[in-house]
Amino acid sequence: MTKLLVADDEFFIRQGIISLDWNRIGVQVIGAVDNGIKAREIIQNESVDVVLADIRMPGMDGIELARFVKNLDGYTSVILLTGYNEFQYAKAAISNGVFEYLLKPTNPDEIMDSVKRAALAVGERRQRDRRLQLLEQELNAGRLLKQADPFTMDEQMTLTNMQRIWKYIKENYSQHISLSTLAESMHFSPVYLSRLIKKETNHTFLEILTAVRLKDAARKLRTTQMRIFEISESVGIDDQRYFSQVFKKMYGVTPLEYKKALGSGMNGELTCLIAGMDDAGSGKR
């Protein structure tokens, strides 16, 4: 069954949604919470196919939740409910990969139809990735039989693929990229690339992407007169509040404090990783 998570800070709307006849369309409501932070915790610990969330919630709103889901690069679709028919919300929803944007008041049939279509989209993505994984396995098996060099084909492919991954991140980190867009560009499944990156670097794609973005942001804080929101947008992070949060997590100070002090350093392990990938990407040994 499709697993649905509901997040809305209005009790009666939340109850109304979970009281619908979801079994009729093969959907199981696995949780109903009143804010985005609780929804995030469930998504981190359970398999969720569809998230139906209000756009305005305390702690973490629907847009932030959608961004979090997008960066996970899994198989979760997000549907946002809102009473605000404003272009800025629709634009933010689209840029964060939201499946659909429903205006309140919404009738039950429209909500259920949207969830059903989102679930079908999730299923199609899973099937596509399974087909790609099978194709990868077949190609690898065929090539390994012909391998005669000292290095195995797996080792050579890993090196080549990691160089391509690094090149893609360096060339596109200022854009709205994710593990899914990387997978599309390399014709691999997100799951395969996620495992490869974790195995080779001990870090996730998002951790590496964020570190690259913040390294450039720190350089711009030191060397330019750009305002913080301009720097945030220039490195691919549209939300200045989120930018400040991840910057402080990485450097121990806010961007403004960093600009004033100009002394804090990035996480040493990630710094070494980025430097090493720079060397690998340029052909150094």
Radius of gyration: 21 Å
Count of spatially separate domains? 2
Average pLDDT, all residues:
80
Tertiary shape? globular
Describe this structure in words.
With 285 residues, this protein is of the alpha/beta class. The protein folds into two domains: 2-123, Rossmann fold; 149-285, Homeodomain-like (Arc Repressor Mutant, subunit A, Orthogonal Bundle), CATH 1.10.10.60. The chain is 61% helix and 10% strand. A five-stranded parallel sheet has the order 2-1-3-4-5, sandwiched between helices. It starts with a strand and ends with a helix. The model is unreliable at 142-158, 263-268 and 280-285 (pLDDT under 50).
Please outline what is shown here.
With 285 residues, the chain is of the alpha/beta class.
Task: Record the SSE blueprint.
Elements: E1 2-7, H1 11-18, E2 27-33, H2 36-45, E3 50-54, H3 62-72, E4 77-82, H4 87-95, E5 100-103, H5 108-145, H6 153-172, H7 179-186, H8 190-201, H9 205-223, H10 228-234, H11 240-251, H12 255-261, H13 268-281
Parallel strand pairs: 1-2, 1-3, 3-4, 4-5
Helix pairs in contact: 2-3, 6-13
